[in-house]
## 1
Amino acid sequence: MLNEIILHPGEHREIILLNEPDTNWHIIQEANSTLLLYVIALPHPNDEVQWHTAITVEHKATGCKTEMYGLALLHSQQQHHLTTRVLHNVGGGYSSQLFKFVLDDESKASFKGELKIMPDAQQVEAYQTNRNILLSRQAEMTTEPQLEIYADDVKASHGATTGQLDDSALFYMQQRCISRETARKLLLCAFFEDVLRTLPNEQMQEDIVEKINEYIG
Amino acid sequence: MLEIKNLHASIAGKEILKGLNLTVHEGEVHAIMGPNGAGKSTLSNVLTGHPAYTVTAGEVFFRGKNLLTMSPEERAREGMFLSFQYPVEIPGVSMVNFMRTAVNEKRKHEGKPALSATDFLKLMREKKALVGMDNRLTKRSVNEGFSGGEKKRNEIFQMAMLEPCLSILDETDSGLDIDALRIVAEGVNALKTPHTASIVITHYQRLLDYIVPDFVHVLADGKIVRTGGKELALELEDKGYAFLNEKP
Ligand SMILES: Nc1ncnc2c1ncn2[C@@H]1O[C@H](COP(=O)(O)OP(=O)(O)O)[C@@H](O)[C@H]1O
Ligand SMILES: [Mg+2]
C-alpha cells in the first residue's frame, strides 16, 4: 500500500506506525513543515510475521525538519525490513533518524538508509543512527547506510553498531540482588530509552515498556 | 558465616586459585593483601558467582548453605555484597530505579513487603547522608560519568542500602584521596554490627588505619600464604611482599 502525503507549509505531522504490516510512505515536505515519524515493531503472536516498511521523505522547500525514530523487538522467525530515503533537495533543512532493533531467536532485520543531499542543498543537517542488539546467536541484522552528499556546507553523520547485552552490567545487577531476567529487562528498556523518551504520548511509552517487560518476563 | 575449603578456580583454562582456605565468623574484619595478579579479585568474583570462572575443586559454605550451587542473585539476596574493584556503568538505568529494584528484590527474599515510594526515598536520603553521597549522583544513570572516587563511594552507598551480612571490598580504597577514604571507611564502620563481617582487599596499610582488621591474610599465587593480626599489614608495608619468601 502506497501512502502519499504532502505536508503543507508550516504543517506539523506525527505518524506512528505500530506493528503496521507492509507499508510504503512517500512524504513530501513543503517549507517549514515538520514531521515526527515512528516505526515500532513489538512482540507479536505471529511467529513468522514479516514487516516491510519503506519511507521516503523529500524536502521540497527550505526550513523543513524531519525526525524519525524506530524500535523493534523481534523473536522466533519474525522479520522486519526497513528502508528509509531522505532527500534534501533544498538547503536549510534538518533530518535525524534513530533506529534501534533487538533481535531474539532466529529473527532477522535489515535497515537500509539512503540519505541524499543535493548540490544546492547547503546548510543542511542530517543524521542517521542505527543500533542493534542480538539476543541470540541465530539472529541476524543487516545494516546498509548509503550517504550521497553533493553539497559542501553541510553537517551529516551516520553510525551503525550491532552488539550484545552487556554481560558485565548483567552481573553487576545480579550482584545487587536483581534476577537475570529483570536485569535484562532493565537493560533493554535502557537501550530503547532514547527513543521512548521522545514519544509524544506518555501512555504509549508505558504500554511499550510493558510489552517489552512481558516479553522478557 | 563463610567457610572456604581448598578452593581451586580457573578462568579461560588457567588455574588462578590453588587451594585457598579461609573462615570468617560474624563480627570479624579480615584484610586480604597481596601482590597484583595474586588472585584477589578472582576470589571476589568466584565468591559472588561470576560466570566466567570455573570452580574446579573445593567447597564454600555461606551461612550454612552451599554457596557454589547458588546463582549470583541468590548469593546477593542471602547477604553477600561485593564492592567492585571496577564498578560498571549502566547508561539508561537510573540509580533510583536500580536501587529500588535491588532493595525490593532483597526484601522479597526476606519475606518483607516492597517499600512504598515514600519509605524508599526516605531510606535513600538517610543512606546518602551516611556515606556523603552527592544528590547529583543519585539522579543519574548507574555510575555513568562518575569519577573513580564517586564510583567507589556509590559502592558503599549501595552497601548501606542493602545492609549485607558479608561485605567484600575489592580495593575500594584505590583511587580515593584521604578525605574520601575516611568517609568510605566511616561508612563501612557505621554499618558494622556484631552479626556482619567484612573482607577488605587492599594494597595499602592506610585503609586499615580506619577499618581495623581482626586478621590480615596474604594471598600469593592463589593461596593464603600467611595470616596474622593487624601488625602483619604494617610489616608488609615496611618490607614489601618479598620477605614472605624468607622462611619465618
Ligand atoms: N579473563 C581472564 N582471562 C585470563 N586470565 C585472567 C583473566 N582475568 C584475570 N586473569 C588472570 O588471573 C590472575 C589473577 O587476577 P586477579 O584476581 O585480578 O588478581 P588481583 O586482584 O590479585 O590483582 C592474573 O594473572 C590475571 O592475569
Ligand atoms: Mg584485583
## 2
Amino acid sequence: MLLQLHEPGETPGPHEAEGGLAVGIDLGTTNSVVAIARGGEVEVLRDGEGRGLVPSVVFYGEDGQVVVGDSARSQILEAPDHVVSSVKRLMGRGLEDVKALAGTLPYQVEPAAEGGMVRLKVAGRVLTPVEISADILRAVKARAEEALGKGVDKAVVTVPAYFDDAARTATKDAARLAGLDVLRLVNEPTAAALAYGLDNAAEGLYAVYDLGGGTFDVSLLRMEKGVFQVKATGGDAALGGDDIDHAIAEHFLAERAGVLGEQPITAGEAKQALMVGRIAKECLTRQPQGEWMIEVDGKPSRHRLDRAALDALAEPFIARTIAICRGVVEDAGIDVADIHGVVLVGGSTRMPLVRARVAEFFGRPPLADINPDEVVAVGAALQAEALTAGSDTLLLDVTPLSLGIETMGGIVEKVIPRNQPIPVAMAQEFTTYQDGQTAMAIHVVQGEREMVDQCRSLARFVLRGIPPMAAGAARIRVTFTVDADGLLTVAAQETTTGVEQQVAVKPSYGLSEEEMAQMLRDSLEHAREDMERRLLTESVVEARRATLAVKSALAADGDLLSEGERQAIDAAIEGVEQAIAASDRDGVDAAVEGLEAATKGFAEKRMDRGIRQALAGVSVERLGDALGDGPQGD
Amino acid sequence: MNASAAAASVVSCWSCKGPVAGRALFCSVCGAVQGPGAVDHFTRLGLAPGFDIDLGQLERQYFGFQRRLHPDRFAGKSPREKALSQQQATALNEAYETLKDPLKRAAYLLAHRGRPVDLTACGTINDPELLMEQMEKREAIAEAESLDDITRLSAEADAEVLACQCHISAAFNAGDLDAAGHLTLRLKYLAKLAEDARSRKARIARAR
Ligand SMILES: Nc1ncnc2c1ncn2[C@@H]1O[C@H](COP(=O)(O)OP(=O)(O)OP(=O)(O)O)[C@@H](O)[C@H]1O
Ligand SMILES: [Mg+2]
C-alpha cells in the first residue's frame, strides 16, 4: 500500500520558455534518425524527400567543407579518402582496439601520441571519433531545426546497451560538441521497447533483438503498466551488418585473387569493396541471387552470389548473436518459454537468415510489425518528452558489464556486477601490500573476464596521502557509482583515518577535460556565449528553486513574520526576479545569496514552530511525505 | 511516538529551511525532494520487516517509489535535486535487490537483528555433514549425462531450495536466530547447487 501523497514539487517547470526543443536521436553506426514527441505523438523528422534516415557518413573536403548523409555516402566511390563511415565503432576506443579490428575498418589511423582515443587522418585533417560523431549530430540537429522551424538544444541520445563507459562518455562529449544538452543516454533496446510497448500496450516479458550496422544488443524486459524493467542485457559492441559486408567483400576479393592473382588494394578500394558487399547483402534479402562487380587498380571483376552462399558467410555472426541471447536468458534466470514476444530492431534483422534463427531460438515468430530503422529514435523521442514535460512511465535499466578493480597479479575484483539496476553505488575495501605504503594505484576496468588484460581499461588514478602503516592495515574503500546514464564515477577513501583524496581519473580511451574544452572552443563559433548561456541557465534554475521554496514557506508560515520582516523578504524575492529578468548570472547568484540571508531568521522561527508542534504531538506527517509509514503506521 | 522522539525526528529542509520529518521523501511546504536517510530496506520500501514478504507487494512498492524518485523525474531540476533523486533511486535499488532474493533477504535480516552471517567466506564449509552432502550432490550433477537424470536432479535441487526457505521462515518466526543463521548458510550452498544443475541441464538439452 502506498500512501496517497500530494506532490507540490512535481509541477513541471516552464521548459517551453527555456529555449529550444528536446528531440530523440538514434546515433547509429550506419544511419542516424531524429524524432520528436508532442503529446505522446511521435514524428520522425524527414528531409525534403521524405527520408528519415541520415546515413552516418561524413565527407571532409580539402577546403574544410563538411557534408553529412546521403551526399557524403555518394562520395565513397569518388573520393574514398575523404569519407568516414561507421565511426561509431571507434567511439571510446584506443589504437590497440583498432588494430585488433584491422582490416574490418578501412581507416587511416594516426598513431596517437600517448595512448588515449584513436585519431583518424581524413583529407589532411586529424580527427577523433568524437569530433566526427559531433559532425553527424550537428547535421541531425540541423535537420530537426529545419523540419520544426525552431531551435533544438536538448536531446535524448541512444547508445547500444552493451556500450562500455568510455564509449558512453565519448557519445555524450560528441553531443556537447554539437551544442546539444544530453537529457539522458538511453540504451537502444530499451528505447525500442518503450516505443513498442507504449504503442501496443504490451504486458509481460519481452526480448528485444537489435542487430544494426555495427552493434548487437539483446535485452530482456518486463513491461507492465508503464514500467519498463530491464531484467538482463547482453551484446557485442563490435558485431553487426558491417561484419557481413566485410565477409562478402573478402569472399569476392578471394575469388578475384584466384583468377587474377593477389593484388595489393588501397584503403579506398577496400571501402568500395565493402560497399559492394553491403549492396549484395541487402539485395539478397529481396532476391534469391545476383551478380556484382568490384574494381581494383582499374580492373573490374564480376562475382555471383546466391542466398545460400550469403547465409553461409553470415552464419558465424548470427550464431554469435544467438549464443549471446542464450546467455542473457540464463542470466535472467528465466525459461525461453516465458518470453511473450521478440521485438526485432535494426536494419540487419531484415535478413531472412536472422529471422529464421531468432524464431528458432525463441520458439516463436518475431514481432516485425514495427519499422526496425526508426523505432529506437521513436523511443528516444518519447523519453525526451517524458523528461521535459513529465510522464508516468518508468524506465529501469541495468549495468551491461561488470565493473571492477585490478588487484595483485592482474586479477579483477568485481565491485559492481553486470545486470544491476541503475543508478547504483557499491563499495569494496582494499588494503596496502607494503609496509609504509602511502599511495595506491587504482585501475578501473570493465568486463566479465577474470584477468585485467582481458577486460577493458576505463581509467587509472592514484590515491595519495595514505598514512604509513603496516602492510594490510590500511582500509581503502573504493566506491563505484553508476548514474542513470550508465556513467561511472569512482571515489576512494582511507577509512581508518578518513583521508579522502580528490582523485583525478585519467580516462584510458577518452578525452581529457582540457582536450574537451579546447575542442569546444575550436568547434563552436559561439563557444563563449554558449558556455555563458549554459551557466546562466544553471543559475536561473537554482534561483527559481530558491524563490519557489521561499514563497511556499511564506504561504505556510507567513504568520510568523512581522510586517517589516515580511517586506524585507518580499524585497529579496523581487531582487532575484529582477536579476533573472536581466539575464545577468552574477546578479542572479548575488540575489540568491541575498535571499538566503534575508530568510535566515524566518527559517529559525519555522524550525522552532515545527519542533514545538512535534512535541505537542502534531503528526509528523504534516511535515512531509513520510516514507515507510505505510503498513506499520506511525 | 513520544514527544522527544517526535522532536528529534524533525529536521530542516535543505531547500526552504523549514521543518520536515526526518524520513520524508518530499518537503510538504516547498515540495523539494529530500535525501534518502539511513533507514532499513524494509522501512524504505514501506514493508514490515520479516522474512516472509509478498513479492508482488515488494514490486509494487518499489515501482511506486521509483516512479516518484527516479532521476528521470528530475531532469529539469537543480543539480542538488538531481543528486538527491539519484541517491534515493540508488537506495531503492539496493533495498529491492536485497529483499527480492531470499538468500540476501535472510542474510540482511540476520544482520538487522544483530546476528550477521558471513556468506562471502570463500567456499569453506565448516559443517562436515553439509560438506559431505554437497560434495555428493555436486558429483551427481557433474556426472549426469541423460536429460532425464539431470532434469530429476535439477528438480530435486529446486525443491530443496524451497524447503530450506520454508525452514528459514519458520526459524525467523520462532525467533530462533541460530537456526536461521545456520539455514541461511545452507541455503547459499543449495542455491549454488540448483544453479549448477540448471546450467548443466541447459547444456545437455542443447547438445541433443
Ligand atoms: N534489406 C536489408 N537486408 C539486409 N541488411 C540490411 C537491409 N537493410 C539494411 N540492412 C543493414 O542494416 C544495417 C543498418 O541498420 P541500422 O540502420 O539499424 O543500423 P544502425 O542503427 O546504424 O547501427 P547500430 O545500431 O549498430 O549502431 C546495415 O548493415 C545494412 O546493411
Ligand atoms: Mg541502431
